């Protein structure tokens, strides 16, 4: 039987080791393992890669520990603006949403864009109108409130600084979540979700909801979910770049992922990481930061979660 597998991430860049208590580390690892197990269980029961990645990302969105869904960071106006995307490697169908508020699971709305609209990418008021027409329940702002995130914001509010997640210093690190999977039929899929960056202004959008930049899936090559300095991942069209190296240079998913994360993105000044899977179930999880919240589980017996390098 073909190998089936799933990989997840909860962001590249990590809380500095001195700030990461054993209790907090255990919480992160437990949340990662739980999402990994649920996604894997669906694959084991013969469900599709799309179902597995959506379920895994939903569970990460439901945790206050990650900068997506419930734990999303605060914008300059003390609100939450969330982005998400999903892509099916079998059909190349994809869906993305950006600048949405009050939606508990942005990844599910992205999937609905893919399956229930004629479009790929909806943003802002239009995306919210679409959600309303599908009878999405809007959560109160208090659902998304997290004390740690609020403190992050208070430190830099009313300034021109912005902050990527999991950091004690400004302009540093990330917290996007994502999943990639290969199912029993050899179909692959990717999903990514984020709350963006703390104190972001002017409707800033990162790479996470952009197909080809932060998220991509094609059965011919790989499924990718990225996390990192979004502006650079957009400039480098990172997710598609990995797929291109596989398609046009015949590289393995491991070699292509490493080339992009440890060379090409560094060359233009970006940092972060990605998770990738090919249609044979091979997984790669490179990062060029001090850590990346990550996990992988496969029918060949692999089952691990990790934070640091």
Characterization of this structure:
With 309 residues, the protein is of the alpha+beta class. It has one domain: 4-Layer Sandwich (Glutamine Phosphoribosylpyrophosphate, subunit 1, domain 1), CATH 3.60.20.30. The protein is built from 8 helices and 12 strands. The strands form 2 sheets. An 8-stranded mixed β-sheet has the order 4-3-2-6-5-1-11-12. It has a 4-stranded antiparallel β-sheet with strand order 7-8-9-10. The relative contact order is 0.20. About 3% of the residues have low confidence.
CATH class: Alpha Beta
CATH homologous superfamily heading: (Glycosyl)asparaginase
Q: What gap, in angstroms, lies between the N and C termini?
A: 32 Å
User: Order of strands in the sheet with the most strands?
Assistant: 4-3-2-6-5-1-11-12
Mean pLDDT: 91
The main pleated sheet reads as:
8 strands, mixed
How many beta-strand runs? Answer: 12
Number of helices: 8
Helix content: 25-40%
CATH architecture: 4-Layer Sandwich
- SSE string, helices as H and strands as E: EHHEEHEHHEEEEHHHEEEE
**Total count of domains:** 1
User: Based on helices, strands and strand pairing, what is the structural class?
Assistant: alpha+beta
Question: Could you name the ranges where pLDDT drops below 50 across 5 or more consecutive residues?
Answer: 165-173
The global form is globular
CATH T-level topology: Glutamine Phosphoribosylpyrophosphate, subunit 1, domain 1
Our Rg estimate from Cα atoms comes to: 17 Å
